[in-house]
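dude i think i finally got it to work??
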Amino acid sequence: MKKRRKKKSLIASFFKIVISMVLIFLVFAGAGIFAYSKLSGNSASDGESKNASDTNLLDALKGQHITTNVAVFGVDADEVRTDVIFIVHYDSKTEKVSILSVPRDTHVKMTDELLSLRRENGNFIPVDGAGNSGYCKINEVYSYAGEGHRQEMAVLQLEDLLGIEIDNYVVINFEAFVEIVDMVGGVDVYVPQDMYKDMSDTGDIVINLKEGYQHLDGAQAQQLVRFRSYPQGDVARVQVQQQFLKALAEKVLSTDTIMKNATTLIKTAYDYVKTDFTLTDMLKYVNYLDNVDPEGITMQTIPGVGQMLGGTSYYIYDEDLIGETVDMFLRGTTAEIEAQKAEAEKQAVIESGEAISSVGKNIMVANGGYKSGFAGQNQTMLEENGFTVQGVYTYNGEKTSYTRIVVSEEGMGYDLQEYYPNSQIIVDKTMMENGEDILIILGTDE
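look at this
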């Protein structure tokens, strides 16, 4: 097997890191975001950035610019499959937290390390639904690796898929998820559809939730994040998990719930969390801890589509687009460039006097998310602010986390970005089918 350097952790104060690991999980049905949603680069220098593994105590005290990637795995009751997988990226200079989700059904070729391990142990080499040797769903890697190798092989598989280095991992099971949600008093969240699935014949849970805004306790929250039967497949499931993560993060960051329950949270972390974060390293990085606005957390799913292979459902990732997505969400390069470019174009149009007011234009609002009645709510809001909305409807095309403001000519839509900060302007008449001047397609994160 190829040798890989041992990666050390990064992160801060014992209490907050452990709490972070637990909350991260409930925040997304995994674990790991709060450590990073609490990291801040307020005192970061303008020097060259370092990976977490290269940062020492002196760097931390100086506020050295750091970046880090943490793999977060939420495991099932038997702890043999990873039911939830995502990467948390933190950059102290930009103070940004990005989360990239990997659907559990993602079709992957096993790494050379995992294939060699199975051959050495006399284990069979799995085949996918189409009979291809050495392929599986990414959530099965944890199981195929076997005791003593699960975390290592799961991390290597993600590194191979995404082309990045992962500094640390956090693994947590659903027992902790239920316990912590109850500890913070439950979470208010929108359930996008009626959900029912009886798994009691195998000793598992019964999922039974109704569509609408609800206050979910731990058991109900587990039902929400584990439900899978969406018309859009695994991608919709990941988006619902992301929305729950944000709702939980906003609640926790706006209260003193964490510190009131610190002792119990730490015990829960020790009971249910597996990680390669060490206490010594955690204590080094207290200088990086600070609050990060939950609204600044960016979440996305690797690009791809659901597809049947030999009667088995897989998520087939887009090989051409995955690199660009990783650049944007885990390296920050594309995101920074595109954001700077968009802002420069916006300012140039406004300063030139060529910006076209949206007041008096015919606007259509399309619900591109999962909240029932959300387009109507936006119609009311826009009309109260002087805009003309000629109608609303449900958007059945590609869903995005951000809102798209589709306009018929250059210079339009900039004044609407005041109401949709996380939005992009697209000039494309062909997307409009109702004679409107502007089409607002609401994103799933609105």
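The chain has 15 helices and 20 strands.
im so relieved honestly
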